[in-house]
Amino acid sequence: MSSVLPNKPPSEPVMALLIQRGRYGLWDESWEGPGGGYELGKDATMKYTALRETKEETGVVVPPEAIFPLVYRGTFEHKGLRMVYYTSVTQLGAKVPVTVT
């Protein structure tokens, strides 16, 4: 689940980048934030995993300094595997054009 939680009443509309899953699988057609898995040898840190996955899934390039430190870490079981997920906060200073393909 993705959430947008402003820490004070916003002076402008709050916007979030969400993607919709395809029509297959356990979470078919659900909306969520970009995400994916850490790739050994490719990602130096979880922060760079988030940057890479966001670019791969949306085409949006997020500058590393826009991601704040880790906010939450959780785990769950999925198809017999223990999954670990991390939540962080990203703030972009300007609107980023997004092309939907």
Automatic annotation (TrEMBL):
It comes from the Eukaryota. Coiled coil: none annotated. Residues 1-101 form the Nudix hydrolase domain. InterPro entries: NUDIX_hydrolase-like_dom_sf, NUDIX_hydrolase_dom. Pfam families: NUDIX. This is Nudix hydrolase domain-containing protein. The lineage of its organism: Eukaryota, Fungi, Dikarya, Ascomycota, Pezizomycotina.
